[in-house]
Amino acid sequence: MKVVLLPQAQEDLDSVFEPLLSRIVRRLEILREFPDLGAPMAGPFSGHRSTVVGMFRIVYRLLPPDMIEVAYIRNCRRQGTARAEMTA
Hints:
The chain is globular, with a radius of gyration of 12 Å. 20% of the residues are buried. The model is unreliable at 81-88 (pLDDT under 50). The protein has 88 residues and is α+β, with helices and mostly antiparallel strands. It has a five-stranded mixed beta sheet. The chain has three helices and five strands; from the N terminus they run βααββββα. It has one domain (2-79): YaeB-like fold (2-Layer Sandwich).
């Protein structure tokens, strides 16, 4: 599967430093092989999945035919911010 970072996800990733950066990139590689790894989300996040690496949550969705669209890579402490943006 192809992993595509939306502009916000790329901006989020650019703000992460080592050693978490390597762990997040590795998780994105794992998602290529196992796209259902993340838990399905509900409510305003319906249709998205999430997986956590350290204190960061990767929010993504699966798109046909073989694409993973990453919406956010956020510090879990900023969860309220991500929720507000997803529902805007």
